[in-house]
């Protein structure tokens, strides 16, 4: 009795709603511990509380084929067949992403093609991460938009064969569904406008940019107006006479510039030679001054020595004899 569908339930796709899940998988769900403990006597209001407790998405896993709580709650929703408003609440709420995934897969199983495109396509803008359990019981990282895209285009999700729905192109041709507006259209338009603006700016810069100078012109000549054509090739003007045209200043030739450079290099060479000559003269004068100082010092020393000898010759003979005797004794000499 606990595994039967409610009496007033409507048939989906011409069959019992629970039969949308394969019999082997249903049997595994009926025998699971989660189904017996958490899904017994659940109502539409209590399913919401159980859905908020979900922490991952998945089908069956392990060697003994155990169903996940996500799959058990999906079968319970097929059994009690909640109202459409509750399913839409599951899909539109923002706080619980696994509750949204549960409502999306239930709507994909039971809803029409129009309802699937109407309520599931807006969920493609949900880029939140979700955990998915594979058949080995390991967790993998995915995103909500990938899960919704799989519901719309894949044939099997969470170990459940999805019913076929009409292609969107067919519904658009029959005017049952409006053409889809991609969220990337605005970004593409902004990129195109930015590219056009950049091309326009580059074109304006190229028009305003001065011409590149050649070898004979410098950057100072960019702002100067171009020279008038040579009198030889210029058309005669009635307002100017031939004498005035012949007196135009000629442009100096390349040989003229080369002679000027040579003359400047010669002047620099002469200036350097003159500096070197002045340095040699300074060194010579400094050397002569040192020699004079040495000669003066030697002469002064000789004059002092001669003065001492002259003073010693003028000493008294008695003092000189006394000094000689004191010198023999090692005493200091007497002074006059």
UniProtKB/TrEMBL annotation:
One of its GO terms (biological process) is mRNA splicing, via spliceosome. GO terms for cellular component: spliceosomal complex. It is found in: Nucleus. It comes from the Eukaryota. Its main location: nucleus. Residues 181-336 are annotated as: Disordered. Residues 184-199 have a biased composition (Acidic residues). Residues 200-226, 240-256, 274-294, 308-327 have a biased composition (Basic and acidic residues). It holds the Pfam family PRP38. Keywords: mRNA processing, mRNA splicing, Nucleus, Spliceosome. InterPro entries: PRP38. Residues 227-239, 257-273, 295-307 have a biased composition (Basic residues). Required for pre-mRNA splicing. Belongs to the PRP38 family. This is Pre-mRNA-splicing factor 38. It comes from Paralvinella palmiformis.
């Amino acid at each position: 009795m606990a595994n039967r569908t409610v009496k007033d339930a409507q048939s989906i796709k011409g069959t019992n709603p629970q039969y949308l899940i394969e019999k082997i998988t249903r049997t595994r769900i009926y025998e699971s511990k989660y189904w017996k403990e958490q899904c017994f006597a659940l109502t539409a209001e209590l399913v919401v509380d159980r859905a908020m407790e979900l922490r991952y998405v998945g089908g069956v896993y392990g060697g003994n084929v155990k169903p996940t709580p996500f799959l058990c709650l999906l079968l319970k929703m097929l059994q009690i067949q909640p109202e459409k408003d509750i399913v839409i609440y599951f899909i539109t709420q923002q706080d619980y992403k696994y509750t949204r995934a549960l409502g999306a897969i239930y709507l994909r199983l039971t809803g029409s093609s129009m309802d699937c495109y109407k309520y599931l396509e807006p969920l493609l803008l949900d880029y939140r991460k979700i955990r998915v359990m594979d058949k080995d019981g390991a967790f993998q990282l995915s995103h909500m938009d990938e899960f919704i895209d799989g519901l719309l285009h894949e044939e099997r999700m969470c170990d459940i064969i999805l019913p076929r729905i009409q292609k969107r192109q067919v519904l658009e041709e029959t005017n049952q569904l409006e053409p889809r507006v991609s969220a990337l259209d605005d970004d593409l338009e902004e990129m195109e406008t930015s590219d056009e603006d950049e091309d326009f700016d580059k074109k304006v810069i190229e028009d305003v940019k001065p011409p590149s100078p050649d070898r004979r012109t410098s950057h100072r000549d960019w702002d100067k107006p171009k020279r008038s054509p040579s009198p030889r090739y210029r058309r005669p003007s009635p307002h100017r006479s031939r004498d005035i045209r012949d007196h135009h200043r000629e442009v100096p030739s390349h040989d003229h510039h080369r002679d000027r450079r040579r003359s400047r290099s010669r002047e620099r060479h002469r200036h350097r030679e003159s500096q070197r000559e002045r340095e040699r003269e300074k060194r010579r004068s400094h050397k002569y001054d040192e020699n004079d100082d040495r000669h003066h010092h030697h002469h002064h020393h000789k004059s002092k020595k001669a003065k001492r000898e002259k003073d010693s010759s003028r000493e008294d003979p008695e003092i000189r004899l006394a000094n000689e005797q004191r010198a023999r004794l090692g005493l200091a000499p007497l002074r006059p």
